[in-house]
């Protein structure tokens, strides 16, 4: 059977087995290496208030929040794009 992608859509190589995690959007269980993880800074302070405080010299901490999505949710949320067949086998950064 022909392979659609060189890495079969996973990052494990020839490890054999990897653990599973839950998608943060839909809750589906997916392998760790197949999940699309996105890290974004999060500030618990309201942006308008943070801007005023920063003008006065206060330091507002931003915490990195990592969310892991299954492929379906990542496409739905626009984290990754669906590429044409010819581009799928090229090694390119997806996000």
What does this structure look like?
This protein has 95 residues and is an alpha+beta fold. The protein has a domain of 60 residues. 21% of the residues lie in helices and 21% in strands. The chain has 3 helices and 4 strands. The strands form 2 sheets. The protein has a two-stranded antiparallel ribbon with strand order 1-2. β1 and β2 form a beta hairpin. The longest helix is centred in the middle third of the chain and has 9 residues. The two termini are 29 Å apart. The mean pLDDT is 89.
Produce a short descriptive summary.
With 95 residues, this protein is of the alpha+beta class. The chain is built from three helices and four strands, in the order βββαβαα.
Across the major sheet, the strand order is 1-2
The oligomeric status of these chains comes to single chain
Count of individual helical segments: 3
Radius of gyration: 18 Å
Largest sheet: 2 strands, antiparallel
Shape: elongated
Uncertain runs:
none
> How widely separated are the two ends?
29 Å
* Counted beta strands: 4
Helix share of residues? 10-25%
Integer average pLDDT: 89
Structural class label: alpha+beta
* Strand percentage: 15-25%
How would you spell out the order of helices and strands? EEEHEHH
Protein name: 30S ribosomal protein S26E
InterPro entries: Ribosomal_eS26 (IPR000892), Ribosomal_eS26_sf (IPR038551)
Organism: Sulfolobus acidocaldarius (strain ATCC 33909 / DSM 639 / JCM 8929 / NBRC 15157 / NCIMB 11770)
GO molecular function, one term: structural constituent of ribosome
